[in-house]
Amino acid sequence: MKYLLAGAAFLFVAACGDRSSTTPDDPASDDAASGETASAEAAAGSPTDAAPATDSLDSVAEDLVKLALAAGVHDPAFVDAYHGPAEWAEEAKAEARPLDALEAEAGALLERARLASNANPGVRGAMLEKLVRAAQARIRIAGGFTFDFDEETQRLYDAVAPEYDVRDFHAALAQIDALVPGDAPLHERVDAFRNSLAIPEDKLRPVFDAAIAECRARTLARYDLPENERFELAFVTDKPWSGYNWYQGDYESLIEVNTDFPIIIDRAVDLGCHEGYPGHHTWNVILERDLLRGKGWIEYSLYPLFSPLSVTAEGSANFGIDLAFPGEEKIEFERDVLFPLAGLDPQEAETLAALNDARRKLSHARNHVARLYLDGRIDRDEAVRMLMEFGLQSRERAEQGVSFIETYRGYVINYNLGRDLVEQYIAAAERDGADRWDAFETLLTTPLAASDLAKSK
Ligand SMILES: [Zn+2]
Fold first, then answer.
1. CA–centroid distance, residue 336 to ligand 1 (Å)
2. pTM of structure
3. Whole-angstrom distance, CA of residue 143 vs CA of residue 165
4. Which pLDDT tens digit goes with each residue over 170-218?
5. Omega before 240 cis (within 30°)?
6. What phi and psi values does residue 118 have, to the nearest 5 degrees?
7. 120-129 pLDDT, tens per residue?
8. Could you count the other beta carbons within 10 Å of the beta carbon of residue 343?
9. Are 300 and 24 in contact (CB under 8 A)?
10. For residue 156, how far is its CA from the centre of ligand 1 (angstroms)?
11. What separation in Å is there between the alpha carbon of 263 and the centre of ligand 1?
């Protein structure tokens, strides 16, 4: 995962690169051999009957991890993080199997996943099947195949972004126009106002330390995390994303913040929650502890970036900001603690909050632009222009936003659509009497895809 805040104007943008841990249980080594047999037979034309009757979810999971490692040799973004047996990664690298062979393997593994899932009903098998389907699609993409935008997101993320009416975006822009009056184009006014609230470079470390500490304290007040969970914070440059959480395994994360552009004060809490607590770092810690070590589900030793897991990953990380700082609490903390720490005028905090509320209504605009651009319905210049207009960004940030779209493609929907789905899930749980932090933890420990979350109305 990554906190791909590729443009400061998009509140939802977030990309993180992280993932789980060291292997807990060593799955039976015989499974790999039987998996290869099934793959070969299925590829030869007898997919259903080829799967061994004794195929287990563990066996499918192990072969999925190995398939992902093999695909990662060709497509570095395929595997966001891996903490399983080192020899599996070494084997994948040494063998360097070609993509067309991997595509055939994926097809055979999908059939095995279906059978195993049917024989073992439950969330694990259902998610395994979706993970294999996504791997198959991403392998095809890595080989040069192009799906249209909606089909790609359906195959990879089990989700399709809604159709948008551009008039809704214009209505939100009109609200923002009133907040930052002036004669210059709106995106320039917004950009200038936000840049006036940039954290001075020599204050970045203390401001981020304070923000993350607060996010962590609020999360630890509700969750018992392992005593040795920890993170390292680093400032980096020349990246296509604005922040990234690299999960190291053994309950440790490396959180990187990109300083190519000025870091606006509201980003500190956003990134602290999204990348850290109760966002990606927290989720990875819980996945490692409960699913990988606790249940021995080896598939959670690897994070496939282009997969249904990313809907929950980005959605929960973005919703986690509101979970940790409900109502006015974020603006109050920023105004009373972070603004003074950064040497900024706390009186500007209210305007920034109002502006951000209005900008939230534009959060889906990037899906709209990405769909038009990747489907070839607008060219790059128009994509940049639309991101400037609807994302209220400078040309430089919009250029970075288009680069992000080119690199990560349909992944953009995970930030906003994912957040909407997580919010819907939590709201439904609350209506049933659940506490929202408890419901959030249930979400983090239950492999649910977008289509599952959509049912929670
Ligand atoms: Zn993220």
1. 27
2. 0.87
3. 34
4. 999 999 999 999 999 999 999 999 999 999 999 999 999 999 999 999 9
5. no
6. -65, -35
7. 999 999 999 9
8. 11
9. no
10. 16
11. 17
